[in-house]
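Hi team, as promised in this morning's meeting, here are the two structures we talked about. I've kept the exact order from the run log so nobody has to guess. The first one is mostly here for context; it's the second one we should focus on when we meet again. Sequence first, then the predicted structure tokens.
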Amino acid sequence: MSVEVVVKVVSTIASQVADLDDPLATDDTTNGDPYRVLISCVLSQRTKEEVTSVASKRLFARASTPEEMIGLSIEEIGALIYPVGFWRTKARHVRDLSIRIRTDHNGRVPSTIEDLLSLPGVGRKTANLVLSSGFGLPAICVDTHVHRIMNRLGFVETSSPNETESALRRTLPRSLWLDINYLLVLFGRNVCTPLSPKCSRCVVREYCHQVGVLRFR
């Protein structure tokens, strides 16, 4: 699939998801604040969006800055974020990264991927989402939806989200970097699902190679 075709595909997907229900569209948990985006992303790992949203709101009601977070114990943070997945480990990461932000970055979330990756509990997906959603910088956030759909379409042939990110950085126009995650996540939840995708209602099925699709609706 050429770059020109994938640009058309993404544009067509955008028109379809505009009419889809997004239960988190009005969620103002992070308010675009880099620190809140960072903490919410850490909490979201292996956790449903709805659970993450509730836990983040509960935590931010008590502490929404690194200084305020450091004022809480790991046990207090854990109680506030429960029942997110691996909540004990995440509580420790939240406090430790808040300390690192204060001591190593003058209390401000760093705006480079290298510095973000040096923080406890932060991987490439989280770092890229902080750059894009927190700072408005061009970054490609690749989660399971983006990885699956880009491979299913035939635009990339990769075996991991990190490989997909590298491939997209080389080929995807920078004008699409900020929007690609939101569009494909919403598309992946509603149409291009992991199992039995709804190909009959997909607006880009004529372009899709259906890689790995064994059964569809």
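And here is the second protein, the one for discussion:
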Amino acid sequence: MKRQPLGTIVLAACLVLASATGGFAQEAAPAPDSGGTVLNLGMAGGYRLGEEDSYANGPVVRPSIGFDYSSEYFELFADLAVESSKKYGPAKANVPGGNFANLWFDMVRGGLRTHLGPFMLEAGRFPHYDVIDSPYSLFENSKGNSSLLLTLRYEGDFFFFQSRWLSLNYMGGMATPAWSTANGQATDGFPDRGANIRVYGFKLGDQMRFGFQDAAVYTGRNFDLEYFLNPIPAYFVQYAKTNLGRPWATGWNEKYNVGMFWDWTRPDGLSLNAQLMVADFNVKAIAPSTTSNPWKLAWTLGGRKETSIGSFGLYNAGATRYIYEPITMGSAKEMHVVAYGYTYYPDTRFDWSNQGNGDYQAIAIEDNAIGYKYGENNLAFQGDWMDRLFGLDLYAGLELRIAGSNSPANPWGNLASHPYGTKMLNESVLEKRILATFSVGKQIGDWRLSGTVTGGVALDALGLAAPAPSSDPDPLWTQPLWIYRPQEGVNKLILKLMFAATYSWKIR
């Protein structure tokens, strides 16, 4: 039986503190000025075709219910949805058919947030976002994937600091071909994993911010108090904790990413931002005898301009190969302690039916990535426009993406060890994808109505497949970790049409 992690005790203590004192909100959510209790009822429906999470294709209905309570120092959130798509297996129920009307439950939000002066504490399940406002943010996925988390933030006039813990996997029961046995021994499925993301920021007046970010992923445990509370940069925390030959050593089951951010919001309506992430680099230029391991980095830059005919945005992002995946799996016996890719899950597939009958479905890159939503080895550009006309909130966007093989869980793709030199889009076949999106929304009293249509095409589309044969192939124990790679001649249409209506009833 697995021991209860220290994180469980700490989280419980923080929840008690949150309910007693109050805290602060995410970057984009300031403390409320007045209290209120709101009940939200929603219904969305539409059709999906050809998305990367292709297992969700077809018609979809998504009813939801939410409850928000806010006061000067305390907020409580509870949002639950059920969905009819086959993205995930239906909820089990003791009724004819054995499931809950072929619907699966989605816990969108469920937690507490408190405010006390310059401090904020947030605990529970929340969508979470990066420090910069970009569709291509690098440290936290711009989709706002929901995760069990704990956030502590301080924001002063000059300096701000945020420490966030993410629960990745805890007492996992999901067994896949890669996580069912190790050295012939049965495993418990996905190993315990956790992540910590921190922001050290500075303000130059009311317009410009810049700072430093780092992130750590660890396995074999779900929570690490040192990473959450110790403000020493995680690079040094990692090396102090993992080097053996010391009585406090925790082993080598941790990974570190570091980066910088900058944004500038000008009074003339122009806003700019940039972000860089580095996972590994070599010093061969100054130490020629060292190994020429690949540089692993990602970047994003972009901005918006407010004009009399709307707000225009332009963004670019890219990532080299290997940046978000683990760098080794050691051996079959050691896999569980080195599954430290920058992903929510240590695999690219899951058992959809949970029957062990080979019904394995893909985990979409965007759903798996903690950071940059498209993961590694791609280049993306987006231009968009938004405005409010005739009482309608309008948006239009166009995106182009070029992508190569993407290996969120398998170290070095189908290789056993790192190649020499930095790699990016260096394959003979690459996916070329173009997407256009248009949405419209309108507020009518307590009702919010909206509609979105996204259409496009993917040429030589990415598809999930077993590692390809190689002169330096994967070890046998990582062969079941499948890889996304471009499929020559496989082209697909992409269509998503969704309509939604939400009623918000302010009870008091």
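Starting points for discussion:
The first helix runs from residue 6 to 21.
The first strand starts at residue 36 and ends at 49.
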